[in-house]
UniProtKB/TrEMBL annotation:
It comes from Shewanella surugensis. The keyword rRNA-binding does not apply. Belongs to the class I-like SAM-binding methyltransferase superfamily. CmoB family. This is tRNA U34 carboxymethyltransferase. GO terms for molecular function: transferase activity. The keyword tRNA processing applies. Carboxy-S-adenosyl-L-methionine binds at K91, W105, K110, G130, D152, P153, S154, I181, E182, M196, Y200, R315. HAMAP family: tRNA_carboxymethyltr_CmoB (MF_01590). Homotetramer.
Length: 331
């Protein structure tokens, strides 16, 4: 069974120690009650991932763990087969002991677009909301973060993260918790909070922004990346049914509308640092994610539109600072 005891020990002497009043109960309930049918199988695979401490790691320019020289070809093939049980791999890429996990998303491209625009992460405490398998968390660690915590309710993403962490060896200050942000109390503790690819999945986007704000210390930085459309402060797309075949897309604001939402949520120094149309090279099917991908979500006759006729995915990255909370804000 996946254990969170090392995380509890890590935060016991930190500014997150008050989280221990509720967190063990929440995660204990998850361990007892989670019913995902594949979880026992995935946990058995995790128990087989016993490898030497890697001879090389790089989290600053990639997520590379081991040169591959420590394993025989047969051992590499066995490791590849074990990691393959965790398909589909969506966020990456990873290089693990000479095995290239070519994920659906080139998440490294997203990181390169935002890296120069955020506050340096050295010695900062970081929360990554909706972190997936944790690719960006490793890159945050590579930037010198004091510790990195990711939350994502998917048990598959948790097992993918635990697989990478196990092979990485040592006690890296990085943890993924199978939680949604609605399960977090207002911690008011993180120096930087990331929310990338989450906002458009929330039925109440301003509530999500307030939840993100409440995890930051005053003066802390929010890094927000989400789908947007063209338009002014009053332009918001609400898909009638699906967007890009996704049935859980609720609100796609313009950048101007998004910045207004952030101002109403008590953020200041709000800057849009990047706008990028997702390319077919950045999101695609691979050996490690053989399901449908972006090309299948777009109009085959016009890649500027989704199959439903909406504008094709365009993503904006916003950086903002938490202001003193406005006690008059209705939450």
């Amino acid at each position: 069974m996946i254990s969170f005891s090392s995380f509890y020990k890590q935060i016991a002497d930190s500014n997150l120690q008050h989280w221990l009043e509720t967190l063990p109960t929440i995660l204990g309930r998850w361990q007892r009650e989670h019913k995902h049918g594949n979880l026992p199988k995935w946990e058995k695979v995790l128990n087989k991932l016993h490898y030497p401490t890697p001879d090389f790691v790089d989290f600053s320019t990639s997520v590379t763990i081991g040169s591959g020289k420590q394993l025989t070809p047969g051992e590499q093939e066995k490791l590849k087969n074990l990691l393959g049980i965790f398909k589909p791999w969506r966020k990456g890429p990873y290089s693990v002991q000479g095995i290239d996990i070519d994920t659906e998303w080139r998440s490294d491209w997203k990181w390169e677009r935002l890296q120069a625009h955020i506050s340096p992460l050295k010695n900062r405490t970081v929360l990554d909301v909706g972190c997936g398998s944790g690719y960006h968390m490793w890159r945050m660690l590579g930037e010198g973060a004091k510790y990195v915590i990711g939350i994502d309710p998917s048990p598959l993403f948790l097992c993918q993260f635990e697989a990478i962490k196990s092979i990485a060896g040592q006690q890296h200050p990085i943890h993924l918790l199978p939680l949604g942000i609605e399960e977090l109390p207002p911690l008011d503790a993180f120096d930087t909070v990331f929310s990338m690819g989450v906002l458009y999945h929330r039925r109440s986007p301003i509530d999500h922004l307030i939840q993100l704000r409440d995890q930051l210390r005053t003066g802390g930085e929010l890094v927000l990346e989400t789908l947007v459309i063209d338009g002014d402060e009053n332009t918001v797309l609400v898909p009638d049914d699906r967007y890009g075949k996704m049935n859980n897309v609720w609100f796609l604001p313009s950048v101007a509308a998004l910045m207004l939402w952030l101002r109403k949520s008590d953020f200041i120094d709000i800057k849009c640092v990047n706008i990028d149309v997702t390319s077919l090279a950045e999101q695609r099917s691979t050996e490690w994610m053989p399901n449908e991908s972006l090309v299948d979500y777009l109009d085959p006759n016009d890649i500027n539109l989704t199959v439903e006729g909406y504008p094709a995915p365009k993503r904006a990255t916003i950086v903002a600072t938490k202001n003193q909370p406005n006690k008059d804000l209705v939450e």
